[in-house]
Design brief:
3-stranded antiparallel sheet; Rossmann fold; 193 residues; alpha/beta; single chain; 6-stranded mixed sheet
C-alpha cells in the first residue's frame, strides 16, 4: 500500500481488509435488512492516521464548496465529521437519534444558510443520511452534498444532492422475511449492539 496522502481504490480495499472492516456471516443492518457481509467502519476509524487519510479523501471533492460545517449521524459519522471538517477548515457536528428523527443536542446549532456537508461511513438504504438531511432542511441550512466512505449500493442511491463515495460496492441485503441466510439457519449477528 502506498504511504502517500492518497489512497487509490485498491489501497482502500486493502486497508479495509487489513483493519477488519469487512466481515462475513449473517448480519442485522441498521436498516433492519439482513446481509452476509457487514462493514464495521469503526475498525478503521480507531486508527487516527487511517481516519485522517480517508477523511482527507472524503473532503477532496468538496474542497471548493466553501463548507462551513460537516455533520454526520452518530455514531458512524462522529469521527468522520471531525476529520473531514479538519481537512476542510470547517466546524464538525454530529446528529443523534431522538424519537425516530435526527436531532442536534449538546448545544450544537446550525444556522439558516450555513453551508453543510453530510458524511457517513457506510450506506445501504441511506436512511440515516436522509434523516440528517431532513434536519438540515428544517433548520434552513444549505446542503453542499453528501460524502460517504462506502456505498453498499454501487451508486443506486439518490439523495437529490451531490454525493461522492470513496468506494462503491454491491453488497446484497435482504428483507428479513426473504433472507436466504435465515432459511439456512445461520445465526443472526447484531454487530452494532
Amino acid at each position: 500500500m502506498n504511504d502517500t496522502h492518497y489512497l487509490n481504490e485498491a489501497d482502500l480495499i486493502e486497508l479495509l481488509k487489513k483493519t477488519g472492516v469487512i466481515m462475513e456471516g449473517h448480519f442485522l443492518l441498521t436498516s433492519g435488512r439482513h446481509s452476509g457481509r457487514f462493514l464495521q467502519c469503526s475498525q478503521l476509524l480507531q486508527y487516527p492516521e487511517h481516519a485522517e487519510q480517508v477523511c482527507r479523501l472524503m473532503a477532496e471533492p468538496f474542497k471548493d464548496e466553501k463548507i462551513d460545517t460537516v455533520i454526520g449521524p452518530a455514531m458512524g459519522g462522529v469521527i468522520l465529521s471531525y476529520e473531514t471538517a479538519r481537512s476542510l477548515g470547517a466546524r464538525a457536528l454530529f446528529a443523534e437519534r431522538a424519537e425516530g428523527k435526527m436531532a442536534l443536542r449538546r448545544g450544537f446549532r446550525v444556522g439558516a444558510g450555513e453551508r453543510v456537508l453530510v458524511v457517513e461511513d457506510a450506506v445501504t438504504t441511506g436512511g440515516s443520511v436522509r434523516k440528517v438531511m431532513d434536519l438540515l432542511k428544517e433548520l434552513g441550512a444549505d446542503l453542499a452534498g453528501v460524502s460517504i466512505m462506502i456505498d453498499r449500493t454501487s451508486g443506486k442511491l439518490d439523495f437529490g444532492a451531490p454525493m461522492k463515495a470513496l468506494l462503491s460496492m454491491e453488497i446484497e441485503s435482504f428483507a428479513p422475511e426473504e433472507c436466504p441466510l435465515c432459511r439456512e439457519g445461520i445465526p443472526l449477528q447484531k454487530p452494532k449492539s
